[in-house]
Amino acid sequence: MEGSKINDKTITETLLLEEGYRKYSGEDLDIYYNKDICAHIGNCVRGNPDVFEVGRRPWIIADNGSVEEDIRVINSCPSGALKYIRKDGK
Ligand code: SF4
């Protein structure tokens, strides 16, 4: 699912926080996660266990992957529980 949009609308941090997403900040990209939407399918942890590791705190560390790699994994989330906002102006 497209990780920078909800219902085809480009997301903002305000919208994500209102919708119940929690923010995991990175240098050039912030990752947002909504546990109520997560379907526990595991594409994230299989996609990049350095960035997404269940049981670690925080379980998401955006800077453990490159921006492009984080986006690739986030877009593989089928439920929409993972979203991102780029901060590098690209
Ligand atoms: S890929 Fe998405 S739905 Fe699957 S476990 Fe990760 S966050 Fe949850």
Strand content: 15-25%
Supply the number of structural domains. Answer: 1
Q: Which ligands, by name, code or SMILES, are bound?
A: iron/sulfur cluster
CATH secondary-structure class? Alpha Beta
Sheet with the most strands, sense and barrel status: 3 strands, antiparallel
The rounded Rg comes to 12 Å
Structural class: alpha+beta
Please estimate the helix content.
Answer: 10-25%
Cα(first) to Cα(last) distance is 20 Å
Round the mean pLDDT to the nearest integer and report it.
Answer: 96
**Got a strand count?**
5
Question: Which architecture does the CATH hierarchy give at level 2?
Answer: 2-Layer Sandwich
The secondary-structure element order is EEHEEHHE
The strands making up the biggest β-sheet line up spatially as: 3-4-5
